[in-house]
Amino acid sequence: MTGTRFWHPYADMGSVRHSELVMDHAEDVWVWDTDGKRYLDATAGLWYANVGHGRPEIRAAVAAQMERLGAYSAFFDLANRPVLELAEALAERAPMPSRVFFGSGGSDGIDTAAKLARRYWWEVGEGDRTLLVSRTAGYHGTHGFGTALGGIASNRHGFGPLTDTIQVRHDSLEEMNQAIARVGPERVAAVFLEPVIGAGGVYPPAPGYIEGVAELCERTGALLVVDAVICAFGRLGTWFGIERWGVTPAMIVFAKGVTSGYLPLGGVMISDRIAEPFWAKPRGPIFRHGSTYAGHPTCCAAALANIALLECDGLLGRGREQEQALFDVLAPLADHELVAEVRGGVGTMAAVELSAEALDREPRVIASLARKVRAAGILVRPGARAIAVSPPLTAGPEHFELIAQGIEHGLNALQAEAFAAQRASDTLARAF
Ligand SMILES: Cc1ncc(COP(=O)(O)O)c(C=O)c1O
Q: Do 45 and 67 belong together in one domain?
């Protein structure tokens, strides 16, 4: 086989092997490829570059930590200064009294939360509580539990039997209620919920939905696990996103924006109630779980510098302050013939969904649209039915305007291509 040797995640390698887009450098909201072409990064990398690219403060913190103690295990009784400091900093900012379990990313965090939810129930004498509830369109990463919890159908296919989970429609509290009642609340360990569904197509929750899920969890005993991998660190204008609804989760999974993606890091905020059986006394139960890079000092140093930037530059609140401006500039695209809906308005993230007709006409239409928008100099994220945007929190109205123009350009190019194909097939039909 010819072409690249790099197997890209989630990629059609039959095509990509000869057509990679190779990035070279980045500065704030801009990224340049190796040919020198500049793009507006409307996706903040992969929903993570909240403070923008190329921040010297993070670079300096990472370099200083590398010089001192680049890496060291944090298993058993080992620790390092950055991990202790970061655990304190996160706990101070969390919406509930908590402990922190670190890993390398969001998928790690989801599997940690799923295992801990089951292990907690086993420890307190309710070992039948093993079932996990999740929602259609939800995305919870690629590890074992995350794949089973995921609600994007194509991501679940072909892997054989997955862990048994209960999946309910993402917008129906009633369906969740009924599903838990049907299996029996005494069998349900936890409900996993993204405050705003991200990769599945940017679905903000209906008013009252999140409060309703929290109340259902309270009533049935199911642990509320908030997947804030996208929504935290300013994307919704608060530290963990979920504060906007005033509910108290049992656990919060975070990653991405915790370092703005400069280095890989994720973890779980674990409420003191869930930690208690494991922390209460010496020779107590041990949570036998942890990955090699948990508590990696250099990754934690990057996170500390990133948190300082979010705070000192006033970026934390911008995810909320600018949510309406981003939505307003994209909303008129809903009138485009190829568009079914524009979603957003909660956090600096939005999606433009294509019409059923456009999606039916050509199975790869979303990828094709994303490429056309890219040709106009804007990087957007293709999903199953929509393209999504989530620019760095340093972006402002002038960038939102460019994003809207780029998407409109892509839609028009797509439409022109469809017309041309139609004309060609009409001509062919007339010839015979
Ligand atoms: C909501 C959510 N959860 C979990 C994950 C998985 O995170 P990671 O890719 O860092 O493993 C993602 C990644 O996009 C995500 O968006």
A: no
